[in-house]
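Hey, resending since the last one bounced:
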Amino acid sequence: MTPINYFTTLDKSNQTPKYLEYLNNIDRVFWTKNFPWSKYQDVCLQPALHFPYEPPPFTESELKKILRESKMLFIRWFDKFADTPTDWWWVVAQAALPIEKLSRKTRKTLRRGMRSCQIKQVSADWLKENGYQCYQSAFQRYKNPPQVATKARFQKNITRQDQSGCFEFWAITIKETLIAYAECLIIGKNAFIVDVKYHPAYLKYSPGYVLTYTLLNHYLTQRQFELLTNGTRSIAHSTEMQLFLEKFNFQKLYCRLNIIYAPIAKMAVQIIYPLRFFVRLSYKLFPFKFFHLINVLLIQESIKRSYKHFAPPVAPIINLETKLNIRLARSEDAPKIAHLHQQEITRGFLSQLGLNFLTKLYQTLIEFPQSFVVVAEVGGQLAGFVSGCDNLRKFYRFFYRRFNIGLVLSLLPKMLNPATLKKMLDIIRPPHYQAGENIPAELLTMAVTRGYQGQGVAQKILEYFTQEMQKRKIFIFKVIVGENLPRAIGFYEKTGFKYLAKISVHKDQWSRIYFYELPIESTRI
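The structure tokens again:
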């Protein structure tokens, strides 16, 4: 997964001048030398050509100059693309999966949607005539919806897009009723899904599956485009869209987020940032748009600060026999393990509880006598880890007693959500599973750094993990894997785990229990 080349792909494209003219008709385009910038959400400036690429060089003084001219609060851009996980990323697909390569659940949902929905490319005039009700209804799903445009403004925006010659429009209908539409920006051999709107009354027909599968095949397979993107990480809205896109082979293209503030914005961020805990709490208690905006800006600032020591080397193919060092983790490894957990185990609930919680969790797993963590290093850098324990119930009792007050205080903002609180109780006080209850030992978590995936690291740390289990006189242990993680399921089945049962750890979220048996004879001295 690599970024596109700005100079050969975007700067030379016939569509680029047309698109910049379109942006300039909406609002002024600003320039540093020959590089264009445009306004975003009337708050900031960002690159006008919004695709993943290394930008050409520019100076801080040039950026501050156009920031003053634009009267925006800050300017942001993205660079240093790498395989190393970071806190900011683009969501990108460069190849479409055939339907038989999708997970069984995704295939089933997609085929059901294709039986009900009809999808077609439509003209701007068609969308202007039929699209407004779907557009208006889509905002019912938003917790903090932006201002809804009038029908006249909606139609004017589509007219401008059409006149630029850079946009294509897609519609999904059921019996001539529009239930979803998409606007795609085309620059050269690259497509950007600028906007998608779903009518909430028709989500049961799975229009998102039909739309995503169709766009991937149309642009990447039929027209041989280089890239289809849904944009960057979203911190303003929690739609879970990017997790959904991973089902169709969209991947994270990691990069660095850079920000330069206007003087007044810089002063405000410096004052408010130490109070971010109270801002999050205020937003939970009083979900007003003002608190939402401040919270988003502080999250963005936190991401920016995470790159102070960021160095993005792309991991080389490694010689496992000579370069990979595998050992039991030490207490000082806990922050690095927690960071890797949050970066790679994105669908797990634990990642939502924050780095502070994860660091305490792994510190306890390392220090508790009946649990352990195995880490793999390459040149002193963490390449992967796996954690486990003799008895999960005993571990959580110890963990809760150790961090009783501190744990509650650190999780207080999240505990205000009843659904989140219920999941927390499931984690701290796991339910009594009928299946697998006679196998107390458990492999808890496993992750490999993105740059080292596919090179045998997971198999090596699993081998070390099983040897450690044998040393502890444990000859059978289990692992619980989410039903929506086909790659993890495939890995465990391939490495000798046997299926036991299906359970629901959290309501309506199914998982599989696998178990692994070790030969007792191998422990004889």
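Residues 289-305 form the longest helix (17 residues).

Sorry for the duplicate.
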